[in-house]
Amino acid sequence: MQYNVFGETGFIAAFAIFLLAGLVKGFTGVGLPRVAIPLVSLIINPATAITIVVGPAAASNVVQSLRGGYLPALLSRFWSLCLALIVVIGVTTPFIIGLDTSTLMLVVGSVVFFGALVQLVQPSFRIPKEKERFWNPIAGALGGLICGGANLHGGTMAIYFLAVGLERDRLVAAIGMVFVVGAFPIYAAYFAAGRLSEDVLLATALALVPALAGQWCGAHFRQFVPHETFRRIVLVFFLIGGLDMVRRGFF
Questions:
Q1: What is the extent of the structural domain holding 65?
Q2: Contacts of 168 (CB under 8 A, 6+ apart)
Q3: How many angstroms separate the first and last alpha carbons of the chain?
Q4: Residue 177 domain flag
Q5: Kind and range of the H or E element at 176?
Q6: Does 1 reside within a domain?
């Protein structure tokens, strides 16, 4: 059984990479896979890198959703969004697993980019709270349909949560919530497809400590950033991330 897939020399580099990825995750609420996968792929093959990130990503999302004690109120407010997300992800994941990667990157990148652009250009755009009962299940279904099966629904959900006016810490907790909710059907489908072998799952434990340590530091730094500044940082992060996805879709 292979516990250290990074090798002796690659382990230190992997430790630093997951520490950085956790820092970004703790500060913005997203970005651990986006930071970790390209860099870890320089050490090991990309397919293994993608799978190894599953453990740190899942653990960081559980911690993120529980931090601050916002989860009960968020579930009460967005239960229909979560339900729609689970159902649609469960239905679409078996198909998305076999989808061409370039097509997936183009679709997801375009949605994330234009959603963030609208929020930056029209910062006053808000969905009234009395309209949430109508829009919540639609947002959850669209998030699951567009990119949920690839575990990329956090970006689209974050754009929606910004539109309904969630403030900094509740926004980050809500992103963690939808990642955790969406993880069950995604990982079940991945396991059924043979993507999550026992060896790889055990190897992900090596990345948990630096990822969670980085997340703690990032969450601590976030407390010193005003809400509006934080909102703009997150949206710019999504703009860049969306453009990068589109680029990867073409090239």
A1: 7-250
A2: 222, 225, 227, 230, 231
A3: 36
A4: yes
A5: helix 168-192
A6: no
